[in-house]
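Protocol step 4 of 6: structure prediction from sequence.
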Amino acid sequence: MPDAPSDQLDFRKGIAQADLASELRFRAMFEQASVGIVQVAEGGHFLAANPGFCEFIGYSEEELNRVGVRDVTHPEDFPAEEELTRQLAAGAIPEYTLEKRYVRKNGEIVWGSMTAKFVRPADGQLLYTLAIIHAIGDRKQIQEDLRQSEQRFRNVADNIPQVIWTNDATGEANYFNRRWYEYSGLSYEQSAGPGWQAIVHPDDEAESKQQWHDALNKGEVFDAEYRLRAKDGEYRWFIGRNVPLRDNGKVISWFGTATDIDELKQTQARRMEVEQRFQLLVEGTPDYAMFLLNPDNKITFWSSGAERVFGWSATEAVGKTGSLIFTPEDRTKGEVEKELVTAAEKGFVPDRRWHLRKDGSRLWVDGVMRRIDKGDGTLRGFAKICRDGTDLYNAAWKLRHAHDDLEQRVQYRTAELQAMNETLEDEMTRRQRLEREILEVTERERARISQDLHDSLCQELTATAFLLKSRAKTLGREDPEAGEALSEGAEMVNKNAGLARDLARGLHPLELGTGGLVAALRELAARTTDAVTCRCECPRSLRVPDPNVAVNLYRIAQEAVTNALKHAKPREVVICVERAGSEIVLSVCDDGARRRKSKIRDAGLGIQMMQYRASVSGGSLTVETRARGQGTKVTCRVPAKA
């Protein structure tokens, strides 16, 4: 082969020298670079590694020649790197950058950002991948810290009862915590931007929007109270606060919170209502003095009624002690302290005493002091309510004296009436005794007349009849007509003797003289049988110890039978006397068709006499008019005295 021209030899020599210089420059950069540089052959084996990478990874270059990329790559990051390397070798991508975790020789994990490019040398050498690795551990740590901080923020934000949101610098909402979604029922898309304003109460929307725009424009804190609609449609009160977050004085975002104060609002409303009622009560009762005291007996509240009653204004009274209204003598006796101690121990104490006005005059106060406790039961103070009772006290004093005077007069009059009553009782007793004596005298006189009729007239008439019959027999033999006339006369005399005996028995039955009430009643029934059927249902063993009571019972039966025959025209009369417990009961029943008066006060003299005899005997009398056709029943009850 002929020798090359000299100019060609010089050109080749120049190229060789240039390649050598380029290689020297690459080697110098490779060795001295602060970043990591590696050459990786197909299959992931390290061909070369500069000191920067060896220091970063903790392996020497010789040690790296014995391990592969998989050995120094975090298992979770290797699949991604393997896929990118495959695409790079296939020419699908010219290069790639990957943030990955490296495993140092001591096991420590470090972050690096690797930029890789596939190299195809022109001299026919093996293909390899050239990678440049930057340590990004600090940036990754910052990112991790930021991520954890963000996570902690979200954990806190999602687990507190307040609604939390954030706005960008323009005021558009871009984050809401879990409480917001639970309360509103809105999604993020419905809430982001100005969407959250849709649940603000219409009455609060305009003012809250204006306040928010003013705060946004001025970069100042936003504070407002408004009602937000819950997902169930109910509105609740919230207090919202939005704080600007700045960087070098410039607002970069806003941090907002909304706290549910609905119960507080309701409590405030109730408290305001209570205060209004209290003011209405206190100021609406000017006749009552009301004031409050703390535990040290200092006045803390003084109503207009207290000012009117006692004369001191609220400015003058508040801060003074409760002894302000007490009289000097009560202060000296310790009544002020005694009242406080009693109210503290018992809960209340009456306040009825003389007090002082501002002008020094005295007034009688009728009121009460009560203990006021805190929520935990400890003493909070005292409340005193009282009114001017001077006029009432004076009226009561006059009434008490009038009452005492009236009491004395009543006692005097009572004594007079008692004396008159005793006199009247004596007179009634004497009259009753006289009436009993009159009855007894009447009965004795009837008995005497009855005895005279029986022993004298009846005997004389009987003897006359006997004599006439005897003469009639004698004269009849001589003059029959005269004898018959005498016989008729004897019969008439004998009949009159029977009538006289009946009259004598009617005036006073002889059986009563021997204590035989039952026998007398039987004899009365027998005599009545001549007119109507009359039965006597009386036990033979019944005895009435008091003869006067026996006489009265007989007269009552006699009068009842007479009335029945006279007014009722009965077919049958039944007389019954019996013992019922501690009483002797006499009854006379008839079946007369004619109705009779049953009320004693409306009855005639006969019934009134029966009532009187029952009363004298210590008993009672009733007259029952039964249904038509069943007659009348007269009942007398008297005590069965032994």
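Step 5 (inspection) to follow. The CA atoms of residues 7 and 13 lie 10 Å apart.
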